[in-house]
Batch of 3 targets.
Target 1
Amino acid sequence: MARFSMLDIVVVRRDPDRVRQSARRRGLDPSFVDEVLRLDAEHRSALTAVETAKAEKNRLSSDIGKAEDKAAAARELRPRLDALASTIEEHETLARGLSPDGEGSPLHALLASNPNLLDESVPDGNDETANRLVRTWGEPPTLDFEPKAHWEIGERLGILDFERAAKLSGSRFTVLRGQGARLSRALAQYFLDCAGERGYVEVAPPLLVTRATMWSTGQLSKFADAMFQDQEADLFLIPTAEVPLTALHGGEILHADDLPVKYAAYTPCFRREAGAAGKDTRGLIRQHQFEKVELVWLADPERSFEALEQLTADAERLLRDLGLPYRVMSLCAGDTGFNAAKTYDIEVWLPSTGGYREISSCSNCTDFQARRSAIRFRRDAKHKPEPVHTLNGSGLAIGRTLVAILENYQQADGSIVVPEVLRRYTGFERIAP
């Protein structure tokens, strides 16, 4: 299967200043661009040398064929032919070693280790404090009592059991019990049903994937220190269903009429949270194992940013149906992930903190992952295949939605009112002490 570098070498050649500017906006050293251009020049020079030597070799072979005494001509030209053959072999080896698509080449390593180009609409800024508010929906509930945190609510109701989970698995795990487990299952079913209504094809993918699959979607950069791995089998537990859904068409050429392809999957997700020591150690916010419904698009390049708006709207719709106040933030350059060209975070209101917390992240990765996965489409028979654009977003994270319901729908008597749209799935309207 042909695989490609993540950054497009053609873009670096054509517009190196754009690549440098994107790196600067991310807070990165743009000097790698000069090294890419230098190695690329060496690669193209080697290719030119190969073609020149082959042309000369063909000319000499033609001269031998035209000679009256072909044997004499062959003896005379043999040293030059041998020298040309040696030149061709030498420069072909050099070209392979410098190929932007050759694993192990320094040029490929540079293109694969640097992040996607930011879209011009992404705000400037170094961290989350520079993220830009796009819109809000709903009013935070007015509670006439001191709001409790979700873990306190869940433990009092007997639906969250952190102590027994720790006995089984250690920290950052939870046991859901009784109506809590049913509410979680109801959320997953509701999210999948909504996705189906909006044209997503439901997929139940493997939860263990190969190193090549992880690499093809950029996760070995994004989640390099956050994955659970079976080292003997060299398989990884997925950190998000984005991985198998995006890679599902790896190495394939789709037709333009097939686009957009829209997938939804409900899966557990597994993350070591190695970079989150001391953060969110209580409750459901940051767990080693959690569930979510993931939404993935494969779109044509001209419509991918329209697709991002639609994908984000699909996730927002779920929160509106649940009656949960939220806001949408456009991530700044320094807060945008490795794979993404542009990202919206959807943040839900949590009364216990008096603030908003991320519940979904919706990104357009343009052709970044598709080039690495070799997912292409053909406009028609006259056009060469070209990379699709890939998009992904949570629709939604189950645990964090459960957190938001427990906190926003808590009552003075300690009970929880179940949002109306979920009641046909749960079979009950309230979780009482």
Note: Residues 32-66 form the longest helix (35 residues).
Target 2
Amino acid sequence: MKEIIIDTLIDGLKLLPFLFITFLIMEYIEHKFSKKSKNKITRAGKYGPFIGSILGAVPQCGFSVMATNLYATRIITVGTLISIYLSTSDEMLPILISEKAPIDIILKIILIKVLVGMICGFLIDLILNKGKKKKAYEIKDFCLENHCDCEHGIVKSAVKHTISILLFIIVISFVLNIGIEYLGEDKIGKLFLKDTLFSPFLSSLIGLIPNCGASVVLTELYLKGVVSLSSCVSGLLTGSGVALLVLFKVNKNIKDNIKILITIYLTGSLFGVLVNIIKMVF
């Protein structure tokens, strides 16, 4: 147990400089482009899912939350909203970068999330045949209240974000290391239904947790070899940080919210199942 604790702490501290640099860059991007992103997505019209899925992939902590508020007043379509939810990476990117994951894996995950979000968004808008239904509302960005302390300087925000995520990674890694040490990687994998058609359904369920911890858990599970890449992507597709929580808070149509939730869950799950079937066949 002592060795597990020491190894976990050492591994966590090794990530500290990489996490801080990554979050510092992300904070700069967010402060620099958040208003521009809002303007672009507001003016996107029928091309909303295309613009939304691309902007959603940019590591901005509050973009999916901002999009939720834009949807609540029907400035953007439901297809655009879902494209943003599906492409949002939350804490995935800084963890993969700090853990020195292969660049091709990082790009593959981002590309998959963007493409799935884009296609799903266009299909939903096409089916629902939503026109340009806009209202002139002034929207308050819930990012300030719910997620990232954007009103502070980028260094202070980066430090706060780095510490909170580092502590979460250490806790998750500690639990996983104990499980691997005493149960073995195979048994842990079985708990998460690894290499089965049902694994994406479980990963997608984890992704729905309205907290940045969901993306941390899924990324760490993948890096530890507990879940496959397809199952990890399934969970990351459904993970949009606190945005779903904000959706149920600001959008009064509960049936509408539930439909969006189910759509996101099924998209993530079925995509993972599809990838697993293709792997089994070929």
Note: Confidence is low (pLDDT under 50) at residues 131-148.
Target 3
Amino acid sequence: MDCSYFAAGVCRSCAWLEDPYDVQLARKQERVSRALAATAPVQWEDPVRSAESGFRNKAKMVVAGAVESPTLGILGPDGRGVDLLGCGLHSRGLQRALPVLSRFVTPARLTPYSVPQRRGELKHVILTESPHGELMVRWVLRSTDGLGRIRKHLPSLAAELPVAVASVNLQPEHKAVLEGPEEIVLTDREALTMRINDIDLHLRPQSFFQTNTEVAAALYRHARSLVDEASPARVWDLYCGVGGFGLHVARTDRSVVGVESSARAVESAAASAAALGLDGTTWVATDATAYALAAEDIPDLVIVNPPRRGIGARLAGWLEASGVRHVVYSSCNVDSLARDLAAMPSLRPVSARLLDMFPHTPHHEVLVLLQRG
């Protein structure tokens, strides 16, 4: 992928961009294989490749500059804005929308936040595109001062862009945090429909979703094939988010319990399950480790999709002692994955697959099937 920003030295986020894609993929495969080699022999399946450009469904843009001339992109070393409207990682829909959102700042009189001066109002614009081209737009503000102006100009924005969901997030503090806890939805719809494979997932403003739609679809398909081969009657989907894994593996003869700390994400998963007629699914808003430790019934298979820190010693210890026959572990950090596997020696990794969610970077996604024995 050619990138003028990289060539000019203004953005080096894609640290591996100068390497051919096949070299990048081989380097990631070697990295994850080496990290898991100490646990047990692992049968590695062919890695899932990504498109080299236009694969990101989400743009998280720092807003800087001035009302009349805002920048949407990243912060430079001096704390000032670097405009990245034409970033080639973004989908075509995002690339078309970002200049419109940049222009929106001026009539809405949204003063960009200045990190060096610690003043201003608009911190970030977060934009997500669905597979069908609809958009979710979120403005991260320090206060509600600009809320009325965004409401006023929202109809004109919707006339230019396919905005399905719009919201304001409040993050008043001066620190490196993308968003705050309070979200004000400005549209009738509260969730963006992400149709992945044959399933409609409903993404609310603060819910997590994989940023590479095509590779996410492959991840869910591969997980479904692993679960179907194991043929469990009862499945837990821990850290379930909006239900991507659990909804893909649910069947009329298989019960699924999804567990997620975000109540809004659980609501989305339950809505998707109801629309699909999956009566055998249950969705619980609580901490995954606490749920497992308090449970009286043990499932046949557990899916875990934790954040970068991994599942941790307590949940790994519970899985080790539980008698669960199979675990499907989706990891974005092979180091925490290896640490968790070392704490579960009775659950042997039998197959693994690298899925390249993040081309041009060292980041990776790995799906591992563990079997007791």
Note: The chain has two domains: 4-52+212-372, 58-203.
